[in-house]
Specification:
The structure holds 3 protein chains of 3 kinds. Chain A is about 70% helix and about 0% strand. Chain A has 12 helices and 2 strands. In chain A, strands 1-2 form a two-stranded antiparallel ribbon. In chain A, helix 2 packs across helix 8, helix 2 crosses helix 9 and helix 3 packs across helix 8. By secondary structure, chain B is an alpha/beta fold. In chain B, about 40% of the residues lie in helices and about 15% in strands. In chain B, the strands form 4 sheets. Chain B has a 5-stranded parallel beta sheet with strand order 2-1-3-4-5, with helices on both faces. In chain B, strands 7-6-8-9 form a 4-stranded parallel beta sheet, with helices on both faces. In chain C, helix 3 crosses helix 10 and helix 5 runs antiparallel to helix 10. The longest helix of chain C has 27 residues. Chain C starts with 6 loop residues before the first helix and ends with a helix. Chains A and C meet through helix 4, helix 9 and helix 11 of A and helix 6, helix 11 and helix 13 of C.
Amino acid sequence: MDPALLLDPALLWKFCLAGLAVGSIYAIVAIGFNIIYNTTGIINFAQGEFVVLGAMTAISLAGHMPLAAAVALAVLATMLAGALIEIVFIRWLKDASVLRLVIITIGVSILMREGMLHAWDEKMHALPHFSGTETSSIAILGASCPPQYLWVFGTLAVIVAGLSLFFKLTVTGRAMRACAANRTAARLCGINAKAMVTLSFMLSAGIGALAGCVTSPITQTQYDMGAPLAIKGFTVAIVGGLGNSVAAVGAGLLVGVLESLSVMIGCSTYQDGVAVAILMAILVCKPSGLFGSAEAAALKEF
Amino acid sequence: MSNVERGIAALIAAVIVVGMVGCEPGAAPKAPKEGAAPIKIGAIFAVTGGAAFLGVPEKNTAQMLQEKINAAGGINGTPIEILIRDSAGDNEKAVSLAKQLIEEDKVVAIIGPTRSGPSMAIKGICEEAKTPNLSCAAAEAIVYDEKNDVVPRYVFKTPQKDSFVAQLIFKTMKDMGIAKIGVLAEAGGFGDGGKAQLAKYAPEYGIEIAASESFDPKQADLTPVVTKVQAAGVQAVVNWSIVPAQSQIPKIMKQMQFNVPIFHSHGFGNIKYVEGAGQAAEGIIFPCGRLLIAESLAGDHPQKAVLATYKKDYEAKFPGEEVSTFGGHAYDAIMILVEAIKKVGPDREKIRDAIETMRFVGTGGVFQFTARDHNGLGIDSLEVLTVKDGKFAQYVK
Amino acid sequence: MGPRRYIPVLALAALVAAVERAVALGGAGYYLTQLIMAAYYCLVAAGLCLLMGHAGQISLGHAGFFALGGYTSAALTTHNLLAHAAEPWARFLASCGLLAEWQNVYGVKVLSVAPWAAFAAAVALAAAVAFAIGVPIIRLRGHYLAMATLGFGVIIYRIAAGTDALGRSDGIAEVPPFALGAGLAVGGAAALRVFNYYVAWGLVVLGALVIVNLTGSRVGRALASIHGNEAAANALGVDTARCKVQAFVASAVFAAVAGSFLTHYNGSIGPSEASVMKSVRYVAIVAAGGMANLWGVLLTGAALNFLSLRGVFDTYDDAVFGAILIAVMLFAPRGLLGMPQLRALRGFVGRRLHAGRAA
């Protein structure tokens, strides 16, 4: 493209806006990773499948009930699936090594993906746009975009605010924070650590499902979309510092915008490689994340 | 050797033996009819994996045709058995399955594979084993090596050539007075092939490709690539892609107020994609086979009967599934083979000779194979279609 | 204990020959096709067994090394240099024996890099890349290492699927056989099937021999100590970082050799060989085989790949591998042969490992 266009602020903003929207999705997935990581020390490789499962369930339900009810039910159903997975595959393992847990969650992710292939089909599905139709358009600071972008930004904001309140104000939230800080100590204080782990899987699955529903009108949904999303989400979680969900929001938006800008200047074929390259660079240079480890520890519980 | 070691050796041997004995392929072959050994036909489709949206209708079509042909008494009284194998779209799996079908199952010919990569991978194997292969994949290189001017002896393909599609798109554009376009192509075999053909024919029609972008179809949001093409100031966009970008890009363009004519490739041949794009699909122009407008064809059109029958049979057998041109490619491949067997019997060499001189009215067009043309379809096999009120219709200026 | 540890290698060699004889007597020579392909995947798994089982380091990117080997061989041996044949550099290379002239199945003449030279380049490239990425990432632990190797795999996949010279999503076809002289070659011709079977499994036996030797040596004991407790190993003066990188490079070389040979055998390679799912499959095989239990790994590798390549699992192919991963990790983390129900075998395996470490 014409190099002069690179300096056009209106065009630059268009790319950034698209990047912010997709970055929000990555951030939500990363928050899901972090919740489970904080209470268990496990990276759940099946996080991307929660996103797909939520969206697929909502799509199937949407034919029979109002959209809001379908989304709510899908989130609930995915939360149950999350709890089930924790109870069946994780709960009863004693002193399992990281290697073993990584492999188990990879296995779960494959089984969920193949299960969805056979339970639904190989086809592309989508929820309707939450407001307007597929041709509606709104302008944000002069850049046209679908109204669904607002839903995506709004969902991210609600999730972050909701989780902050949950972890600060409710007894259960505080108990989960206690488990994240020191599981043995928390158990000695009478907190049911096992229940907290199950709860973290449920929360994380629910958040993933919500992300799946809110993005389905934009990206559409197919059974095998989970793994690429999980890789992006993990990149974001690492960039922000593992376990730090507030930083994940900043990191998500950053990765999204960088990806979008990489299309502007370079070759779109390798767009997917940008996030992975960032991931590798961060892992090698600063595994504690961009936002510093001391800070991360302080911010760990929102 | 201690006892334990002997035990291990025995166990290993046992496992391997059991593995070999117990490895009858998963797709259970149908019991042949009493008396006659069935004619075996191999089929390699991408039933799972990224190209499953092509492979599944192909598999369905093959199952349907096997039932239908056998119910009508088979070929000259001998039933057929189509051994359907899932390659998942992988080259190495297709290689393994092709060898298995040829050497072990002794099939008379192989239908498929679905994708160009696996098709190129098994091409040499079929040549060497002198086994006819009717590919359902898009790439022209499968039946014509342009650099060395070589046509393979045993390999044929049924989908229409990308180059015809590119030419028809450009012809339509020229009529509309469009001179500067953007190309959005999926970064896969299908999109790459289309992109190359578009680039090749653009100068001939006096059309400038101002922006040409490949994208990963599994990308979460395609807005950035579309923005890039929009910034190039084009008069029309060619979206040469597969699902989900088929439906996504028209939506994104409308949402970004990027209102220029959209052209698609023949990969748009499934009404589901129109539904996926909803309102945004209105007015999309694309060249395609006539299967999608079977009802509105004139009564005396040579393809009318075959198209109507295939559509009726398919939608009756798979309720809720709409017929697509992809399944049509498998239909043509199987029926061409059946025609050849009818004429010359189940002999690989004779079948090859028979196909090479055959004229066949299929879903993709009227095939006329020659020694130099192993695709057999002309540019008239395609019709320029558009989307009108959520349905496919013939495009009129 | 010294020579005793070679007994299983001999047993493996005998088994390989016995299977071939049995198949030939049964008139089912076609089984060899998938056994040959499975052998090369077993070679990757054997290398990964060294890395995961002995050094205790996970890799979710080994399909990347396989693809590096395969694609290098394929790209170099299919690039037709006939138009440049008269140029001085081409003549010089030809005089060194680095170029080969051959005819493909359609009778087209091709002048390309000789397969053996391409093979050497493939292995060297894989080793160099493994060293270059191994040095920075191998010091990562747990999830971080898993993710970094996964990232490496994704990048190789992207390069394979996005580069014109590598055929993008179609991959590279019409790769010539790897001629070894006397009319013998690594290639798909039916007449050479038995020969190829012995080449493939010969490589596996050779690989097993290397691993048995390695694990019985100083290096092996160092790796075992890293697996046990890295900090303690460090304190005892083991250069843990260096040992881990060595294991990483060695396993990458195993994968590249397999990739190069299988590409010549198949006559083609595609990006699916570099996919994350392929890497996960190798991990599944090593896990199911019992991590450090080389014989278990080879056995499960041979059986699972043989069945998978024959399409036995049909559309449940990936699901089977996922289920095996979970089942093994949940119920038999020491591999199928390590299950209590197979106590006798476990005792044997334990002794063997012990013998390896103590020798």
